[in-house]
Request: fold
Amino acid sequence: MSEAFDLIYSYTRAQAIDNGVLVDATAMAKEAGIRYPVAITDRLYHELIIPPLELAKEGQSIEGRLWDTLMVLRYAAAGASGNLVYFHVSFQTSRTASGEPVHKTVRLKALCHGGDQGEPVITIMFPEED
Reply:
């Protein structure tokens, strides 16, 4: 026997994008060959997709870092089964005193799940996020 319950509140994906909790990356994801709408968490966006100011001055861009993330996801997802994919992306974080780039390889996860209308959507995040 199933029990009915009253829904007190729901928070939609669209609201999360409007509020900045998620950052919509769908347009670029389509260019990268990903057919479902894609969003990334605000934390991932601010910690890794936005380049540090000194690297932005050297040409690192939000678009380039997001493109790299989406392309790595695309190739990781091509060989995966199921709705959860873990993948690694390398981000330049700074330069050494001698000018050599310093990179940080980060493990990320992408979850394909039902959107606001039950349609497939993808959310990219850090492994500990949900």
In short: The longest strand covers residues 101-114. The chain has five helices and five strands.
